[in-house]
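Just curious. Invent one:
>
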Amino acid sequence: MVSSHLDRRSKYSQAAIQEAFLKILDDKPLDSITVTEVCNVADVNRGTFYKYYKDVPDLFLQIKGSFFAEIKKTMEVNQVFNVENIFSEALKAIQGNKNLLRVMQKSGYTQSAVDEVTFLLKDTIINGIKASKPYASDIEIECVFQYIIGAGANLISQWICNNMELPIDEVQKVMVNATVAVLNSI
């Protein structure tokens, strides 16, 4: 019972620190945020912060890392190329990390996030295109992949800018229909 209580407390402390950090990052650049500032907003002491994070950049990297691990897990689960499942799971992960992505976008970290997600999606999508279009050349497949990723990244970026007002199933529908149309073009 004690372990469960401590585990809940640890999760609560980490969540409070991460939420406080994202709130501050919404107003200030990463390099000007201090541990003291995060601790004051999170209402935790510095020892609690240092129990989980080395410094503020480490906190940011861990938050980002958790998001990308979630996307990677989505790709591992969806080994069969099913654009509806892939987009559905990726959009759910994005929606679940709404504050992180909004702050990353506002702070100019969007391109690095897009690059990392592209890296995570590439093998699954390329292999899916090859399986569904075995006669397509490698150049055609790469062009289709880049188009899908570029269009998807722009759509998601706009969705985040608009505070994700459009329902997730509508965004997924647009992405799936556009992807199927592009795949049918080769």
